[in-house]
Amino acid sequence: MSQSSPGRPEAIAEPLRCRPPATATVQIDNAEMRATRWDFPPGAETGWHRHGYRYVVVPLSAGRMLLELPGGATAEAEISPGASYERPPGAEHNVVNAGSTPFSFVEIELKGFPG
Fold first, then answer.
1. Which end of the chain is more exposed for a tag (fewer CB within 10 A), N or C?
2. Which CATH number fits domain 23-114: 3.40.50.720, 1.10.1740.10, 2.60.120.10, 1.10.3720.10?
3. Sign of CA dihedral 58, 61, 62, 64
4. pTM of the predicted protein model
5. What is the pLDDT of residues 12-56, one digit of tens each?
6. Stretch 64-83: mean pLDDT, rounded?
7. What's the DSSP call for residue 43?
8. Domains in the chain: boundaries
9. At 85, which helix (H) or strand (E)?
10. Angle CA(20)–CA(55)–CA(39) in degrees, nearest 5?
């Protein structure tokens, strides 16, 4: 990481990437929840983000995800249609389609459980 100069931000430690973005379609957004459908062509990513609420993911199709995590760590996960899972608020990552076929899931954020 380089030193910052007055008036200039410090260099970002994350490498620059040239991946296509996944498509997010908000289906429900009210005081209690937000449901977003995510569609990932091969190689697509969400971009780095932090989850502000507890959330549930409902896979619509099978796929292989690469999870880029804080500090440069990575993990891989397989998703299967209908095999839901939940995560706590505060989760930080970039989700990438690491497979050769598209996949989709619905993410349901529970606004009553912030973090």
1. N
2. 2.60.120.10
3. negative
4. 0.83
5. 455 566 899 999 999 999 999 999 999 999 999 999 999 999 999
6. 97
7. T
8. 23-114
9. strand 85-87
10. 25
